[in-house]
Design goal:
The chain has helices at 15-19, 29-42, 46-66. The protein is mostly helical.
């Protein structure tokens, strides 16, 4: 975890990330967890769901530490 000193809008996404509609957003931890929870239930791809669950677990632990 780190504290951002400034927020940049110039994010480099791969072609496949752009096709999937991915984007980078700066949001509070708890809001990010809510979005991850929604993603888990909407995702029907095994590999992607696994990654979401992994990242969700990391985020839950970060919230325990940083609140």
């Amino acid at each position: 975890m780190a504290k951002a000193l400034e927020y940049k809008d110039d994010v480099t996404l791969s072609e496949s990330e752009i096709k999937l509609g991915m984007e980078a957003k700066w949001i509070p931890l708890k809001q990010a967890l809510e979005l991850m929870n929604e993603s888990v239930y909407r995702c029907d791809d095994y590999s992607t769901k696994f990654m979401i669950l992994r990242d969700k677990t990391i985020l839950e632990e970060a919230i325990k530490i940083f609140g």
